[in-house]
Amino acid sequence: MIGIARLTKRYEDGTKALDGVTLRLDKRITTILGRNGAGKTTLIRIMSTQLLPSSGTVTINGLDVVKDVGMVRDIISSIPQEMKVMGIATPYDHVEMYLNARGIPPDEIGALAEKALKDLELWRVRDKSTADLSGGMRRKVFVAMALASKAEVIFLDEPTTGLDPISRDELWKTLRELKRERFIFLTTHYLQEAEALADKIGILEDGKLKAIGTIDELRAKVRYPYSIKVLSDVRMEKPEKGEIIKGIDGHLQIVTTEAEANRISRKLIDKRVRFSMNPITLEDIFYFIVKKPIEEENYGDEEEWW
Amino acid sequence: MAMKRNGGSQLYASILVNAIFAMVNYPVVLISTVLAPFSLLIVITFVSHGTLLPVAIAGALIMTMISAGTSMQQDLSHLKNDFKLQDMIVSSPTSALVYLVGMAISEVVYSIPALAVLIVLAAVYVHATLLGIVAMFFVVLIMFVFAVSLGFVLSTLTSDVVQSWAFAGIVSTILSALPPVYYPITYIPLPWQYLAYLSPATYAAEIMQNTVGLTTFSATTILIDWAVIIAVAAVMTYLAVKKAKWRED
Ligand SMILES: Nc1ncnc2c1ncn2[C@@H]1O[C@H](COP(=O)(O)OP(=O)(O)OP(=O)(O)O)[C@@H](O)[C@H]1O
Ligand SMILES: [Mg+2]
């Protein structure tokens, strides 16, 4: 349904934001994970016809986003990352305005707006000034705008930033229902979100697509099912099987087999080192893929454990 | 599968965003738009002991249209850079032209209170032939097309509303402070008159003042005036449609 081939984007100031991204998406929800500046917004803006690529192609349902731009715009809806509500208008006004802008016949607008606002639990506040809504509710207004439109492909750039856990869950539920009829492409920083939602997860880093696949396919990339996070500041021996990576908070993390994880953990207990051991999560996969294993000299002397 | 799109709805969306929401929810904006064109009109009328009233009314009509263009530039810049609404509209079936026309209409809707008062004043104080009225209508229309196209082009060049304020300041100096819109150009000392001719509004004002009957210009001058305002409006519209950055590169 979406095809991206050797896509690159170099901004006028020379910044290379995308570097040869290639992927094919047939699943209903795709999530792109990536750190700040990885190129997520650049990618989504090119896909949703707001920005020209430097080279490469993007097709949506076989339509080229550059050559067939008119037809592409008929079937997509895109919510920018930093979109803000207009304080002068109510949630209902926002949806009504957007449906009008999409050229939806006036007699269909009322019903579509009502359904979307109800799905996102905004119906209660439909006539309140958006200036008086909470930050999370404001974000939901945009999602309601995209949902109400009949667009087949919806792009959401970090839709859940600023939502509380319950609102986030609700939005996920709506998106999961929605994927039956629509194709959804979203970006996020929340690994949990990708895990909860996505049929396919892509990891973007420095403009390059480091990995793409289902959660199981990504898991297979790491090859090791267990992760040990060492919470004390110690030097580590290279495990017999597995790898040491630098974790989220700078602490060392070992990804390894079950047997090796057991062996290491017994040693760590003996030495009274604080650690935690878990089956590998998407978070671990993310760090494994985004951050290269740390260099040999960093583990210290191989004779000695700590 | 091409979908049937309702063009009227698409225009209406712009009018909602840029006029109706504000007018309905914050009626105080209406007072401000009514007052805007009158400040200079009142000053000029009093200073001239009423003799320049008809000219000042005609001038206020031109200035209302020009400030509609200036506010369009600021409104668009605000919607594009602060709300990111324009990005969402770009990724939708609304074309740049429909968006531009819708926003332009919304500026007229916004100016309706001021225009209504000015038209009543014109009916009372300005004595023009039918041909004169038609001429005034077209001058106002052409200046409007020029101003909104300029506003649109400038707004698409901005990435921050601060830039937009700067453009608005420059444009309103050139288009409204410089040209003798509220009084005859002969009131300006000679070297400065040349400067005034840098502004398209001066040419529009000459036609208006000729029609109102305060100053008479030669037929050639009036013909040149028409040619100039039509040409600048056409060039601006062309730029707006062709050069406007609807999709960034
Ligand atoms: N208009 C621009 N001109 C120049 N460089 C840009 C422009 N927009 C983005 N960049 C650069 O391109 C790179 C990718 O930016 P992008 O906004 O796509 O990242 P992102 O993954 O969306 O980040 P975040 O998670 O912070 O939103 C960054 O280095 C950024 O500074
Ligand atoms: Mg981003």
Task: Kindly describe this structure.
The complex is a heterodimer of chains A (306) and B (249). Chain A contains ten helices and 14 strands. Chain A starts with a strand and ends in a 16-residue tail after the last helix. With 306 residues, chain A is an alpha/beta fold. Helices cover 34% and strands 26% of the residues of chain A. Mean pLDDT of chain A is 87; it is low at 294-306. In chain A, helix 3 packs parallel to helix 5 (135-148), helix 4 packs across helix 5 (135-148) and helix 8 (215-222) crosses helix 10. In chain A, the strands form three sheets. Chain A has a six-stranded mixed beta sheet with strand order 6-7-8-3-9-10, sandwiched between helices. Chain A has a four-stranded antiparallel beta sheet with strand order 2-1-4-5, with helices on one face. A four-stranded antiparallel beta sheet of chain A has the order 12-13-11-14. Chain B is mostly helical and 249 residues long. Chain B has one domain (2-243). Helix content of chain B is 77%, strand content 0%. Chain B has eleven helices and no strands. Chain B has helices spanning 7-25, 28-35, 38-47, 53-82, 85-90, 96-125, 130-157, 161-177, 190-196, 200-212, 219-242. The model of chain B has no long low-confidence stretch (mean pLDDT 86). Classes of the chains: A alpha/beta (306), B mainly alpha (249). The structure holds adenosine-5'-triphosphate and magnesium ion. Adenosine-5'-triphosphate is lined by residues 11, 13, 15, 17, 34, 36-42, 81 of chain A.
List the helices and strands and how they pair.
The complex is a heterodimer of chains A (306) and B (249).
Chain A: E1 2-10, E2 16-25, E3 29-34, H1 40-47, E4 55-60, E5 63-64, H2 69-75, E6 76-79, H3 91-101, H4 106-119, H5 135-148, E7 153-157, H6 165-178, E8 183-188, H7 191-197, E9 200-205, E10 208-213, H8 215-222, E11 226-230, E12 243-246, E13 252-256, H9 258-270, E14 275-279, H10 282-290
Parallel strand pairs in A: 3-8, 3-9, 6-7, 7-8
Antiparallel strand pairs in A: 1-2, 1-4, 4-5, 9-10, 11-13, 11-14, 12-13
Chain B: H1 7-25, H2 28-35, H3 38-47, H4 53-82, H5 85-90, H6 96-125, H7 130-157, H8 161-177, H9 190-196, H10 200-212, H11 219-242
Bound molecules: adenosine-5'-triphosphate and magnesium ion.
Residues 11, 13, 15, 17, 34, 36-42, 81 of chain A line the site of adenosine-5'-triphosphate.
